[in-house]
Amino acid sequence: MIQVVGHKNPDSDSICSALVAAELLKARGLEAKAVRQGELNRETQHILAQAGVDQPEMCTGVAGEKVWLVDYSDLAQAPDDIADAEIVGIVDHHRLGDVMTVNPLEAWIWPVGCTCTIMFNLFKMENTEVTRELATLMMSAILSDTVGFASPTCTQKDKDAVAELAPLAGVEDLDLFIKELLIAKTDIQGLSAAQLVDKDLKAYPFNDRDVVVGQIELATLEQVDSMIDELNADLQRRCDEEGLAMAALMLTDITTSTTRLLYKGEWNAILDQFAENDFLMMENTLSRKKQGWPWLQKVLA
Question: Where is the DHHA2 domain (predicted)?
């Protein structure tokens, strides 16, 4: 049995690509199942409801198992016992992380906007049927990760994939589909500060220390105005409890591509030079992968 697992604090691409990759492996005649490393956010719940697909079961451990990693290749984002598993496959659209394997593996790492874009192309390459359910999962993940094609991570391959997937998913009004998806993506009502930070939090090893960078995609920055103190306190708590050099949180207005960066930790002073009135504003910054984290790496180096 191959366990297909996305990263910790799963986003929609992490969940959808795990479900889709498991079906591709089954089509090859292999035993596979998708698992998850956390609770589904509201957007992902919306997507699975649209597709009529059940959520993956919770990952309880991968020791002694064969594993496919989807949507990451950093060990910090993998199951805690990944060192005792055999990684046999990776599908990802991020930088190559620190994964090391004993045996050769199947690896597909493309510079595109979404892991599901790669998955769709693998289905095409292998002449494997794309059902309505799978088409809905892949198209939704692509539109989520590219923020409806607005993200700088979006490529022509992502747009081409959606153009082919929409009729397979039975979607005639793509604009309406995107609108409903983004409404679900930016729904944070009733979530606590800790839940918001956990919503899309990724860990990165950097300069022999650990850093976490989260992102909350919003319809307007005003949605979190009343929670700034609580969010800062939660970031500081993580630094204190986990020994992090920095915990940062991108508050991103997806309508204006403006990001307000919150940050706490030992490396605060490095970023203070870019802040004004206790705010670090990042204009034209929509993507953590291509804009936020690369900028932080350059400044913190």
Answer: 178-300
Q: Are residues 221 and 277 in the same domain?
A: yes
Q: Residue 280 sits in a domain of what CATH number?
A: 3.10.310.20
Phi, psi of 158 (to 5 degrees): -65, -45
Q: Which of 141, 159, 184 is the last residue of a domain?
A: 184
Residue found by looking up tokens 């993580």 in the block: 238
**Per-residue tokens: 105:** 């593996």
Which residues neighbour 182 within 8 Å (Cβ) at sequence distance 6 or greater? 147, 148, 219, 254
Looking at the structure of the chain, the number of domains it has is 2
In 113-171, alpha helices (H): 115-125, 132-145, 156-169
Q: Range of 293's domain?
A: 193-300
Q: Which of 159, 184, 209 is the last residue of a domain?
A: 184
Q: Are 195 and 187 in contact (CB under 8 A)?
A: no
Q: What is the pTM of this model?
A: 0.88
Residue 209, Ramachandran bin (φ over 0: left; ψ between -120 and 50: alpha; else beta): beta
CA distance 239 to 242: 5
The vertex-79 CA angle with 35 and 287, nearest 5°, equals: 85
Say yes or no: 81 and 204 in one domain.
no
Element (H or E) spanning 175, and its range?
helix 174-185
Q: Dump pLDDT digits (tens) for 141-194.
A: 999 999 999 999 999 999 999 999 999 999 999 999 999 999 999 999 999 999
Distance CA 36, CA 14 (A): 8
As a whole number of Å, the CA-based R_g of the chain is: 19
Verify that 146 and 201 share a domain, yes or no. no
Angle at 178 between CA 283 and CA 122, to 5 degrees: 95
What lies within 8 Å, CB to CB, of 145 at 6+ separation is: 11, 12, 13, 93, 113, 114, 115, 116, 151, 153
